[in-house]
Amino acid sequence: MDRRPRTSQTSRVHDDTSQGDTGPGRTEALLNAADAMVILEPGGGVLWRDERFADLPIPVQDRCRQWCVEFSPGTAARTHIEAAGRCWEVIVRPSEQGHHVCLLLEVTHDHGQQLRLDAVDQAGLMLLHFDRDEIANLTIADRLRLLEDRIISSVKRELKFDHFEIRLRAPGTDRLELVISENLSPMRIGETISASETGNGISGWVAATGKTYTCGDVRKDPLYCEGLDDARSSLTVPLKLHGGVMGVFNIESDTVDVFTEDDRILAERFASYIANVLHLLDLLVVERASTNEQAARNMSSELERPIAELQDMAAHLHRIGDDAMATRLQRITADMTNRIAACAAGPRSIIDAEHEVHAIKPDALLQGIKVLVVDDEDRVRSEVAQVLRQLGCTVTTCETGRAAFAAIEASSEQATFAMVVSDIRLPDASGYEVFTKTRQRMPDVPVILMTGFGYDPDHTIVRASADGVQGILLKPFRTSQLVEAVRNAIVAAVPGQTP
Question: What's the CA gap between 151 and 146, in Å, rounded?
């Protein structure tokens, strides 16, 4: 039965349901206002439906069932769906038996768009609602998982997009780092996207101009770069913050000309929430790093006088002939100074390298093995290499992804590396690309990834962890942690090997 939209009545029902009234009167009002009704089993099977639901277009029935099963929580919820040029508001209420009681109310297009905007606003506010202390104490991997889950769920539930990615501008560069990706093909190893109007696809153009770009047919658009397999259209909006562009939100579809002006408005609205939550989480990370480094600097300042007094005491002991005690005291004060300086340096150092590296003895398990160390920080690269050489390893160092790829290619054709240790943030690549390249050329070679504070480029930690990376070191780390990670990775990679 074809019924005309009843905007005034559905608006009244919408207001009533927002008040949380679950009494018989509201239920009766909903039933009277509904244009169709269906009761679904927990798995999505139809337990009962009325004739009006059976007469609805199949895409509407399918979308209703999918949303009710996948996205509706244990309490009453609502969404908006459209198909065949018609719009419906869907209200779902769970029963005590676990079934989904779904009511559909046909609405005008304008009213349906307003419902979608309201839902996007609600989802966006939920993105911003988190416990500050809890987030600050999460690891980078856990923080990204939490954020990824929230964004992916919201985009699918409210915007009805299934293929999308989010890229952020790397600090100090124009490179667009992949942070979240859902059902889009990864770029090939060594390929990058930068914020530029030419040569970097639609995402690069949007990041450079700050303007939304709707691509109706990717086969006819010279700006489009491959993303979704068999993609036919795309919608890319900038992530704007304080007048600047911090990244892009790119959505793709396998249907030509599928994205409408309404989709653009919704995507831009949700992109503003994404930009703000990413910025807030980044501030928490920076604040955590800055607090730790400032605390270390404060400690260093407070300890300057006691350390100076200890140094004077050591000099006095030398003068009176107690060289053994003087030497011991000098070693203690030097160790204190080095550790405090390393802590203040934050992710750009190994905490105790200057003191501990000289105490490292060769390890029979690691004698002569070839290790590739990749990091653009001179100090980290040098300290890690020094520790490994003390253990007996033969070390090759690289400061860029391009140099690392070349070293991996050359090694795979000759005597292969026994291990790769790489930072996740490189000037021209990500740790995940180094990890993937290693797996392609040398499948059995273990990889250890290092990371400091900040975003995880290319979602390296989460993706590499799922793909079997052998270890992750959070900077700044101790010499003993590096040694343990290297030994464990070699032991795991060699069958029958014991620590």
Answer: 9
Q: Domain 356-493 sits in which CATH superfamily?
A: Response regulator (3.40.50.2300)
User: What are 244's strand-pairing partners?
Assistant: 241
pTM comes to: 0.53
**Residue located via tokens 């793709």:** 252
Query: Is residue 418 helix, strand or coil?
Result: coil
Report pLDDT for 389.
Answer: 94
In terms of Cα–Cα distance, which of 254, 209, 276 is closest to 236? 209
Q: Which helix (H) or strand (E) holds 250?
A: strand 244-253
H/E stretch holding 222: none
Of 395 and 276, more confident = 395
The amino acid sitting at 120 is: V
CA distance 140 to 148: 12
Question: How many angstroms separate the Cα of 20 from the Cα of each of 16, 177, 344?
Answer: 7, 42, 52
User: Using CA atoms, how far apart are residues 441 and 94, in angstroms rounded to an integer?
Assistant: 52
pLDDT at 136: 61
What is the architecture, at CATH level 2, of domain 7-107?
A: 2-Layer Sandwich (3.30)
Give 23's pLDDT tier (boundaries 50, 70, 90): very low
Q: Which helix H or strand E contains 76, and what residues bound it? A: none
